[in-house]
Amino acid sequence: MIESMAAIAAELQADHAFLARLPRANAAQFVQARTCYDHFAGQFGVTLLRGFMAAGWLHAEKSEYRLTLAGETGFSKFGVDLANARSQCRVFARGCADVSERSPHLGGALAAAFLDACICQGLVLRSRQSRIVHVTPSGWDALRQAGLLPP
């Protein structure tokens, strides 16, 4: 349901001037890498979605994304439980409107499973005080080696 509301909201023009005025303790970090509910967002989330597409892991189909064979292999290497993600009563993979980037990041069960896998493997650390996430050096290396980020 959250992804459905986000898809509708993506069609509406966000008031970016208002959003920019919202007070944030770590505004630069918030824009760089954060969570949106249970998946990556910010510049990092948008870059990841572009990387998934460029690496051929996901293919855009209408309002959702289809996982390719390369994507099955790639997400599995990161420890994503694809069977569990597919069995959830929610959208599997859909673009989610990013409030700071004006481009979508990946939302849905697949995106949530990827965030969980990255946290479990120590590739990403979540802040206890905010939605900010910190990519560890091993996280940057793993994502670059997978071809999801520029070298």
Could you describe the 3D structure shown?
The protein is an alpha+beta fold and 151 residues long. It has eight helices and eight strands, in the order αααββαββααββαββα. The strands form four sheets. The chain has a two-stranded antiparallel sheet. A two-stranded antiparallel ribbon has the order 3-4. The chain has a two-stranded antiparallel ribbon with strand order 5-6. The N and C termini lie far apart (36 Å). The model has no long low-confidence stretch (mean pLDDT 85).
- N-to-C order of helices and strands: HHHEEHEEHHEEHEEH
Q: Please give the count of helices.
A: 8
Overall form? globular
The total strand number stands at 8
Which strand order spans the largest sheet, edge to edge or round the barrel?
1-2
Show unreliable segments. Answer: none
Radius of gyration: 15 Å
Largest sheet: 2 strands, antiparallel
Helix content bin: 40-55%
Distance between the termini: 36 Å
